[in-house]
Amino acid sequence: MVKMSRWSPNARGRLEQAAYELFLDKGYEPTTVADIAKRAGLTERTFFRHYADKREVFFGGAAALQEELLRALDGAPPAFSAIEAVRIAVEAMSKLMHGRRALSRERQRIVAAHADLRERELIKRATLTAALAGALQRRGVREPAASLAADMGMAVFHVGFGRWLEDPAGRELVDVVHEGFDQLKAVASGI
Amino acid sequence: MVKMSRWSPNARGRLEQAAYELFLDKGYEPTTVADIAKRAGLTERTFFRHYADKREVFFGGAAALQEELLRALDGAPPAFSAIEAVRIAVEAMSKLMHGRRALSRERQRIVAAHADLRERELIKRATLTAALAGALQRRGVREPAASLAADMGMAVFHVGFGRWLEDPAGRELVDVVHEGFDQLKAVASGI
DNA sequence: CTCCATGATGGCAGTGACTGACATCAATCA
DNA sequence: TGATTGATGTCAGTCACTGCCATCATGGAG
Fold this sequence. Notes:
Helix content of chain A is 69%, strand content 0%. Chain A is mostly helical. The first copy, chain A, folds into two domains: 11-58, Orthogonal Bundle (Arc Repressor Mutant, subunit A), CATH 1.10.10; 62-188, Tetracycline Repressor, domain 2 (Orthogonal Bundle).
């Protein structure tokens, strides 16, 4: 039997939905948290029970990315080098963006326009990087190789992501990222 | 002849000094901007004329780093590969930290303890990275090699910086970073 | 010399993000 | 039946940050 609450279900999702609608409509800054809560049929106070702050509502998907990243890394053959394992993990994460290019571009447009949101995005990236480095260490990779490999992998992802959004050929992110690792190797071989 | 102002000189420096003293004394969050301004003999309103926000007072040195980074990159021999040029630039920037290890460690302790400040630090790093990538492009390096090389260089700096702060041997940052580039090459050769 | 523009500052009233404390009340469970 | 739980509401408060206007030495134009 389905549990019935006295509250409308999925408050968190309604808040996220309301936030996106309002951000697209009148922009990020002019939209107050009270506006978002009102549109979701809730109060400002309740918004802050679901999201630590106004920006967080934009980054609900980060947890799923991290799960996939770590899951894939753990699945990489033990014989793989650090950077090969990172490549597997980052490419697996990239597959999650399949079919989301238009959405991603909209979102990126908003994030790029607001320093607040860019800061938050960078911290999400740093968190992913640290998680990746930690998982590499548990795999037996020593420092600073683990941190460097993690940073390099996330750099390839980040650069690839930006190119994917602009790619006129409409390739898949996985493919852009895959190629990025080859380019990384080429650049590094210049030392 | 020296210009005499009716105001005490170096308001900006006094604000920075006051902020550090208060942050070390009672911590970052409990210190209000009004506290800082008062200690500097100014008002809150004036604080915000010198610093865009409360965090910015912590990152006054970033501009000097960027100048040195770009200056050194422009001075690198044209025949150098992208990553070699980046190495020159990042190592030059690293030299600016000479003799500042104790200070840096204090500062890092505060920054690490506050998500706000970590976010701001990441944006400073991203700004440096973007500036470096742009300078590489003006040098003739194409994308995505320029962005990848810039990201790799900043990753080496970042990882090296962390190791430098903890290094029991007390080596210079330049040396830690120099070694970091070799380790980067080793990691990348694993692809 | 007079007057005016400049520029760093102060004062003040506001907005909006975020927090702590307490109340509410349907569902659930002992 | 009665206690507990958990998501929510209400309210007052703090503090970062902004806009607007006033102040007032300095320096230059006339």
